[in-house]
Each structure stands twice: as C-alpha cells, then as structure tokens.
Recover the amino acids of this structure.
C-alpha cells in the first residue's frame, strides 16, 4: 500500500483503521476523510526536527492554504505550531477556532487595504511583505492604529526547484517577492528599515511546492545568508530571522521516493551553520511553512461509481459522483494519484480513466488507473493523498455541493465540516 495508514481487511479497504466502505455508506459520497492521528504525528515530527536541528525559538508554521477549516487550526494550536495565512478569510477562520494571532504569519502578493487593516487590527504577529506598495500601505495603517508591526520581507533567491511551473515560486521572474539578482531586494530592505511604523525582523523566501531535490534548500540558504550578510555589511542592519518557506514533497505514487524530512532538515541546519560561520553572521531564528507534508497523506477521498463506459479499441471510463469540483488538481496541473477500489481486490484488472460528473471533458480525476475489470455502478473508489489542496480548492461548479470533511481517530470519527446542502447553494442568492 502507498502509506502505512492504508490497508485491507480481506478485500475491504481501510484508512486510519476504519473500513472506508462503511464510512461511505454512513456518511455518503463524495467524502473527504482526514486521519487526525497522522496530522498530529506530522506536526510533532516537524517540531522535534526543529528543536533538534535549529534549536532556540525556531518554529514550523502550518501553511493553512493546504487545508483551512476551524478544526485544523484547533489541532495546530494544540500541537504548538504556528500558522501561515494568505487571506483575511484564513485569518478569520483561525481566530474563530481560537488560534492565537501572535503565532500567525500573513502572506500574499496582493493584499488589499482592507486585508491589511483587518490583520493589523486583530494582532497578526508578522506580515510577510511582498512589494513596495504593500510596504508603504502597511506602514500607514500601522501608524494609524498606533503600533509597530513586525515584518519579514519576501525575497526571491532565483532558485529553480525543478517542480511544476504552477507551484514554482523561487525564480527571478516570479510574481512573488523582490529579486536578489536585480539589486531590487537590497533597495527593498533599505526602504523598509527606514519606515517608522515597521520592525523588520528578517527575510522570507519560498522556492516552490512539492520539492524532492535534496539540495534545493541548501542552495537557498547559500543565497539568503550571503544576502543577509550583505545587508549587515552595507546597510548596518542585522536581520535576525530567516523564513525558508515550504515545499517538501509528498509521495502520491508508490514509484515516488519517501522523504526523510527530519534528515533533510538536519542537512539544511548544517548548511546554515556553515554559511553563517563563513560570513561571520549570527545564526538566525528559522521558520518554515510545511503544509502538504503535514496533511496530504492524512487525506483520502471516497466516491461512488455512477457508470462504467467501455469504448472498444479506444479507452474505458469509470465515472464517479465527484470530480473537479472536489479535486481540481489534475485538471489544473496534471497531478498524479494512487487509486484503489474499496471493496474488490485481486482478480482481473483493466485500465480506466477515472472521471467526474462535471460537464467538462477536462473533468478527469486520474487517467489510466488499474481497477478490477468488473467494477460497476454502486462500487466505491478511493483516491489517496488528498488531504492537501482538495477541500481548500473545492468549488460549486455546475452547482454541485461540496463534500464534508470527516476526521478519523482511534476512538471513532466526527464531522469537522458538514456536507453542503442544495439550500446552501442558494444561501447568498437574492
């Protein structure tokens, strides 16, 4: 099996120790499943790795865009994580769950005036400032509210992480941040440290998502420490924090390698110590923003088969009661998934395209999956590793209600997000 929280009892698929067919029959489909124990273990793995490798008050921040709902923030608060937010909506959700605002970081390359005003007013701990216009707007707002706002400045290091173009954020021409290579980053820092209502704590960078190349963060450290030392030497200002962003990859297919994240973090910490010694620079407080690697393998989505269509000499389709409305990632950038039949195991298999119910030819969940040849209407299909960027990217396209999120524990299960009703679809219509 793809992950150790997936198994079979006889022919019946299990997830986090639960019979998924029984869950589908009780709660209906489509159905998002989340393994709460796996989420908590992944948080503790990061926290322990940070204590061992970076020490001090360094902290992992859960990148909540991966999966944002109130119970997720409660778990993060209980586990001692910080959180990375990218909108007023994520901040409001976190606050509604009781998450402390001082442990929030607020990202975004296009924050509106209302975003800035709201985040300052509720006491968000740190802004990651993306550009000059935001810098000046935040300085004005902080002054009007009578505070000195802590900030990190988003710097683009010019790193290619060899990942999907859609999730590559570290190149010089990225829409995010200010580039080192062009000299703009130095001028950005100089401008920021001269503003009276901002306290520049350090710099932030993010090279991309789903990173497997083992030297990506080391190369990033080389550039960022050199830049921080340049700021000290030329501007006389010591940047005390370094946020390396997120991006450790998650295994979606059995052919992909497993990541030893604590080992990778230890390697980054060693490189950081070497570079700080080389430049006679004090070790900074380190932040990172894991999201996918905390929740992706804690997720599974269940569907019910609506139809099986065979076109002799061409291809065959299994169509289910969900699709790009609950998982748009294949349609967006060709993401690969492992797919299992929930009740049938063994016997003759056939190759199918697993497709959804939307009126779009591109509504494909996964092409060329191997399923039992006798798959039929009413069977249940499980798509693995859907804890990240599935619920958070879901839509009501074709006026389809979004699925619920069911949290699984060793003691049972509980709903964290209810299923949308047909009435919910019209709730804001006038």
């Amino acid at each position: 099996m793809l992950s150790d929280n997936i198994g079979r009892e006889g022919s019946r698929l299990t997830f986090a120790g639960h019979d998924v067919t029984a869950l589908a029959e009780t709660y209906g489909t489509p159905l998002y499943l989340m393994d709460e124990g796996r989420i908590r273990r992944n948080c503790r793995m990061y926290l322990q790795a940070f204590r061992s490798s970076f020490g001090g008050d360094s902290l992992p921040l859960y990148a909540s865009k991966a999966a944002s709902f109130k119970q997720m923030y409660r778990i993060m608060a209980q586990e001692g994580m910080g959180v990375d937010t990218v909108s007023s909506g994520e901040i409001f959700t976190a606050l509604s769950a009781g998450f402390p605002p001082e442990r929030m970081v607020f990202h975004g390359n296009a924050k509106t005036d209302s975003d800035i005003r709201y985040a300052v007013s509720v006491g968000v701990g740190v802004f990651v400032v993306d550009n000059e216009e935001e810098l000046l707007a935040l300085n004005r707002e902080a002054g009007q509210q009578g505070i000195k706002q802590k900030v990190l400045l988003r710097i683009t290091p010019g790193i290619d992480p060899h990942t999907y173009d859609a999730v590559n954020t570290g190149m010089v021409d990225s829409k995010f941040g200010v580039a080192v290579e062009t000299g703009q980053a130095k001028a950005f820092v100089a401008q920021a440290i001269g503003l009276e209502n901002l306290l520049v704590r350090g710099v932030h960078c993010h090279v991309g998502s789903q990173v497997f190349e083992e030297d990506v963060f080391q190369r990033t450290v080389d550039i960022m420490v050199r830049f921080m030392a340049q700021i000290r030497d030329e501007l006389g200002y010591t940047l005390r924090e370094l946020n390396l962003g997120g991006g450790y990859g998650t295994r979606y297919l059995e052919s992909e390698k497993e990541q030893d994240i604590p080992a990778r973090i230890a390697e980054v910490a060693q490189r950081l110590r070497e570079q700080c010694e080389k430049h006679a620079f004090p070790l900074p407080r380190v932040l990172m923003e894991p999201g996918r690697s905390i929740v992706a393998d804690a997720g599974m989505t269940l569907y019910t088969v609506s139809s099986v269509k065979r076109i002799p000499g061409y291809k065959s389709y299994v169509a289910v009661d969900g699709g790009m409305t609950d998982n748009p990632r294949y349609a967006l950038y060709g993401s690969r998934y492992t797919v299992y039949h929930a009740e049938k195991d063994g016997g003759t298999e056939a190759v199918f395209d697993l497709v959804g119910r939307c009126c779009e030819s591109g509504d494909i969940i996964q092409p060329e999956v191997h399923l039992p040849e006798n798959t039929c209407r009413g069977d249940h299909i499980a798509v693995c590793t859907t804890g990240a960027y599935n619920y958070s990217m879901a839509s009501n396209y074709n006026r389809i209600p979004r699925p619920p999120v069911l949290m699984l524990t060793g003691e049972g299960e509980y709903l964290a997000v209810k299923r949308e009703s047909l009435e919910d679809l019209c709730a804001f219509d006038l």
User: Anything to note?
Assistant: The first helix runs from residue 20 to 27.
